[in-house]
Amino acid sequence: MIRLNIKSVAQLRSLLFEMESSLGLVELSPNERDVLYAINEVCNGSQRAARSEAIRNHPLAAAIPQATYHRALKSLVQRGLVAHAPDTRAGQYVLSANGRL
After folding, report:
1. Total H helices, total E strands in the chain
2. Mean pLDDT along residues 23-52
3. Sheet harboring 92-95: ordered strands across?
4. In angstroms, rounded to a whole number, what is the distance separating the alpha carbons of residues 55 and 50?
5. CATH code, domain with 72
6. Is the pLDDT score of 13 beyond 90?
7. Is residue 4 part of a domain?
């Protein structure tokens, strides 16, 4: 039973790697990817802003050390994948519509 579960997880990881490769996400560090995924989930795929504390508390980002989290978020902004939410106070982010790696 455990072997079957590990095999399924291995297949999922392989599929995820292929998808990340095709999107160019393999150029990001694992922490940057996890923060990007957390922002996407917090925003629910819409353009509404994600608060930094909600991103930070998401299970994908919660285990990342604080300083590393902030470096990853800053890097995503610099790469143009994430932007500071317009017309909001500091600490709110949106996924960039034109963000490309």
Report:
1. 4, 3
2. 88
3. 50-51, 92-95, 82-84
4. 7
5. 1.10.10
6. yes
7. no
